[in-house]
Amino acid sequence: MTMRVLSVLIVCCLLVAGCSAPPDPGPVFDNEGNRPVSCMKHQPAGPGARYLDPAQVRTDETLPLLRYYTANGRKAYCDRAAPSDADRAWAGVYVSLGAERANVAGILG
User: Fold this and answer.
1) Residues forming a β-bridge with 40
2) What is the pLDDT of residues 46-69, one digit of tens each?
3) Model confidence band, residue 96 (pLDDT cutoffs 50, 70, 90)
4) 62: closest CA among 31, 84, 88?
5) Domain contains 3
6) Residue 7 placed within a domain
7) Of 38, 41, 74, 96, which residue has the fewest beta carbons closer than 10 angstroms?
8) Checking phi first, is residue 34 left (phi over 0); if not, alpha (psi -120 to 50) or beta?
9) Which residues touch 27 (CB under 8 Å, ≥6 apart)?
């Protein structure tokens, strides 16, 4: 009887472990609706696995980032504040994807 209960318990634990949600891949880059902007806004959070883990990187998520910084990366932030750590992290992703560093040099420092 004890062996049967133990077996059922092990099976239940394995099923629960197999049904757990995948880890959060992190925020999606905010490209301000892909609209023309006169200044940039700060990113609220740094990039997560969806941009940093090669197994999770998707073209439909990286192209807006590339497009945004290519068009706007040389512009000032609307609040005239310095780039945040999150902003620098996103600019780093931009460069790591093969884009021109000069477009985000002011962000990276």
Assistant:
1) 77
2) 999 999 999 999 999 999 999 999
3) very high
4) 31
5) no
6) no
7) 38
8) left
9) 43, 44, 45, 46, 47, 48
In sign, the C-alpha dihedral spanning 42, 47, 50, 55 is positive
Closest C-alpha among 58, 65, 59 to residue 93: 65
pLDDT of residue 24: 84
CA distance 26 to 43: 13
DSSP state of 66: H
Distance between CA 95 and CA 84 in Å, rounded? 17
* Residue 98 covered by a domain: yes
Domains in the chain: how many in total? 1
User: Has this prediction a pTM greater than 0.70?
Assistant: yes
Q: What percent of the chain has pLDDT over 90?
A: 76
Range of the domain at 84: 26-108
Which of left, alpha, beta for 36 (phi over 0: left; psi -120 to 50: alpha)? beta
